[in-house]
Structure formats: C-alpha cells, structure tokens
Design goal:
This protein has about 70 residues and is an all-alpha fold. The protein has helices at about 1-15, 35-50, 55-65.
C-alpha cells in the first residue's frame, strides 16, 4: 500500500511533464514554437532600439552621397 502511494505522485509528475510542447511542434502561423519565440525576441530587440531622429538621418544620407 505504501509503495503504491509513493509511486502515484511520481507517475503523475511524469505524465504532466509529457504535456509540454516541444520546440519543433507547429505553433501559430505555421512556424515552429522555437521559430515563433525567435521572431518575438527579434521584434522585441528591434522595438527597444532607439530610432534615429529624422534630421540626423537626413544629414547622414547627404554626407554619404556627397551632397
């Protein structure tokens, strides 16, 4: 009886562990879960960067073209 009571939580933990998604399963938009996470990370990185003010961008463009 005691052995069954000790075995039950271990089996339950193993069953719950099998429910998680793996990185190569299809996710939203037809991409894998890992690809979706990589895209989210890249988008977050791009959004967190400081944008170059328009006046500075225009001045840099003129310098590079020699105007």
């Amino acid at each position: 009886m005691n052995r069954t009571l000790l075995l039950l939580p271990a089996v339950a933990a193993l069953m719950l562990g099998a429910c998680s998604r793996t990185d190569n399963e299809p996710g939203p938009g037809g991409v894998t879960v890992a690809e979706a996470k990589a895209l989210d990370d890249a988008a977050e990185m791009l959004e967190s960067r400081d944008a170059v003010p328009p006046a500075e961008a225009e001045a840099a463009a003129k310098e590079s073209t020699g105007e």
